[in-house]
Design brief:
Blueprint (H helix, E strand, L loop, with lengths): L30 E2 L14 H11 L3 E7 L20 H14 L5 E8 L6 H8 L6 E4 L16 E2 L2 H17 L4 E2 L6 E2 L3 H18 L2 E5 H5 L7 H10 L2 E5 L11 H13 L3 E3 L16
Helix pairs in contact: 4-5, 5-7
C-alpha cells in the first residue's frame, strides 16, 4: 500500500518561485551532499541536469543522496516517497556514469538519505554492501520502524513524540553509519519552549561529542516551512555545533539557491553558526548492526 505525505510533494519548476534565484554576487555553495532524483517520486530532472546545474553554480562537490530503498519493508507497504529496491542498481550506475562523465569538472559522490529503523537497519546495511555507496545522511522522516508509526514532519505539543524523535536520531548517530544529520529540526514542536530546548539540546550535545554536523536545509528555508527553525539554530550557535548547508535539491534549479542562500547566511551570521564547507564521508559498508 502506497502512502502520500505533505512533506513529499512533487517539485516542479513552479514550486521554486519562492526565491531560489538571484542572490548576492559571489556567494556560492562549495559542496552539496543532499540531492535527489526522480526515483523518489517527488523530484524531477536527470542526473546530468543536476550535475550541469551544480557546475554552473560553481559547486566543486555534488553528492547524490536520494531517499533510500528499504529492502526489508513488507512488500505490501510501499512508502511512495523513496526509490524501490529494484531501482537501487540503476541509481548507483547512473551516479557512477555522471561521476565519470564530469570528473574533470566536479567531484561526485554516491549516497542515500536514510531513516534509522532499528528493525530493518541491519538488513539495509547488508544490502548496500552490494553497491558502490559512499555515504549516508540521516533524514528521520518517521519514528520507530515507519509502519503504523508517527510521521516526523508533524506539528505537535506532545513531549513524548519530540523525545522519541531526538532519541531515535541519537541512536542513528551512534551506529556510525551516517555522515551528517539532514533537517534535524524536522519535527515541529509547538509546546513549551523549555521542553523544546531540553530535548534538542541533547541532540546538539551528542552531535558535538560525535563530531557530527547538522544541516541547515535550504528546501525548508526557501519553501517557507517551519525548518530551519531559529529556536533550534540558536541552540546550535550557542553550543558551537558544525553546520553544513544542504540544498535538499529536488530539481536542478534548486542547486542555484540564490536569495535563499542569502537568507541562510543571514541566519548563520545571526546565530554565529560554525559553518563548514565539506564533510568527511563515512563508509556505511564498514558498519554492521544487529536488528532488534
Amino acid at each position: 500500500m502506497a502512502h502520500s505525505f505533505p512533506y513529499f510533494h512533487f517539485y516542479s519548476q513552479s514550486t521554486i518561485i519562492f526565491g531560489l534565484k538571484g542572490g548576492a554576487e559571489g556567494r556560492m555553495i562549495y559542496a552539496n551532499y543532499h540531492t535527489h532524483t526522480m526515483r523518489c517520486n517527488h523530484a524531477q530532472g536527470t542526473e546530468d541536469e543536476y550535475v550541469e546545474a551544480a557546475i554552473a553554480s560553481g559547486m566543486k562537490i555534488l553528492g547524490f543522496s536520494d531517499h533510500t530503498p528499504y529492502f526489508a519493508l513488507p512488500r505490501e507497504h510501499y512508502s511512495g516517497f523513496r526509490m524501490k529496491p529494484e531501482q537501487a542498481e540503476d541509481y548507483f550506475n547512473s551516479v557512477l556514469r555522471v561521476r565519470d562523465k564530469y570528473k574533470d569538472k566536479i567531484t561526485i559522490y554516491a549516497g542515500v538519505e536514510a531513516e534509522f529503523y532499528p528493525k530493518y537497519f541491519g538488513d539495509l546495511l547488508d544490502n548496500f554492501r552490494r553497491f558502490p555507496i559512499q555515504y549516508m545522511i540521516l533524514g528521520q522522516h518517521f519514528l520507530d520502524n515507519e509502519i503504523g508509526s508517527t510521521y516526523a514532519y508533524t506539528r505537535t505539543t506532545d513531549e513524548v513524540l519530540l523525545e522519541k524523535f531526538v532519541k531515535q536520531m541519537i541512536r542513528a548517530i551512534d551506529t556510525g553509519a551516517f555522515s551528517y544529520v539532514a533537517h534535524p529540526d524536522l519535527m515541529e514542536f509547538d509546546g513549551d519552549e523549555k521542553i523544546y530546548a531540553k530535548h534538542y539540546r541533547k541532540l546538539c550535545e551528542h552531535c558535538l561529542e560525535k563530531d557530527m554536523a547538522l544541516e541547515l536545509n535550504l528546501l525548508g528555508l526557501g519553501g517557507g516551512r517551519h525548518y530551519p527553525n531559529e529556536k533550534f539554530f540558536k541552540i546550535v550557535g550557542e553550543m558551537g555545533n558544525k553546520v553544513i548547508i544542504g540544498c535538499d535539491a529536488h530539481s536542478p534549479a534548486m542547486l542555484s539557491p540564490g536569495k535563499t542562500l542569502d537568507r541562510a547566511m543571514d541566519m548563520a551570521d545571526k546565530f554565529k553558526l560554525n559553518l563548514i564547507d565539506t564533510i568527511e564521508l563515512k563508509d556505511p559498508k564498514k558498519i554492521y548492526f544487529e536488528e532488534e
